[in-house]
Fold this protein.
Amino acid sequence: MNAIHPAADTLTIVAPLGIRFRDESTGEFITEGLNVAVYKPERPATRTQAVANPSGIYVVHHAPGLLEVEHGRGDARFWDEVPRQRFVVAVTDAASRFQPFQIDVQLPERGVLNWLDSFPTSLPEPTPSLPLYSSAIRRVPPGMAVLRADLWDATNDRPAAWSVIEAYMNSQLVGRGIADDEGRIALIFPQPSPRPFTALSPSASGSPSASIGPPLMEQTWSIELRALYGPVSSPPSLPGELLPEKQLPDLRVLLSQPEATLWANSEHTAPLHAVTLSYGRELILKSTPSLSLSRARQSVLFITPAVSPP
């Protein structure tokens, strides 16, 4: 990002990075409560915090190695010639509304970081922004539907950490969720529109026309499912004195995982391609257990990774 200067002798301050965050479930911009840290991969202990400006864009200043860039002119020639460096952006949410993640960026970045060119979104009006995905413990906003599951890696017998589920209606993406490191997922998306009523013609007696249709609380919708799972390897650990908190998964890696199979039963003979959503009810997904299945696996949704680790 850069400030426009009207005269040659006007001091210009170039912001090496500006990020707008958007809730992938509701489409709302998130302007507070996020911890956004920027650092060079080889220097994780030297971090710069991004701060939200009055427009709700998280802006970075004084990042190590970019101080000279901040005093550049910020014109077209500047952006054509300025060398870029690799940085890591780590995002966490103090209120645990959203899943934590990190991404690699090349700084300085002109304008607001544009993520939407990389992966499809369910939002009707794409705006340059970085998506935030709901955590498994997030409170469901009013007017939203939710799909929940405890995903279990059937091949490696462990939680399917960081697996992804996408929800579709009539082949249109309506929501995407990412599981946490324990395989828990809450895919939150807008409640589908109620089905239209059918108008009846006026009766011979002259009575006004009436409408018929299922009551709202009895309406259902078919939701198609698509799963992504690698599985993703945990990021390499760094010395505790450099980075005491656990490493975060890379968002690009998570959304680039290959397609995987969800199973309707614990024997892994019936793939789960679609489910039925009822109005006003949480949709809890789990594989139908067999008699021999342990109690600990009675309520999980089995998933088979597309590529098993060597």
Notes: Residues 68 and 176 are 40 Å apart (CA to CA). The two ends are 43 Å apart (CA to CA).
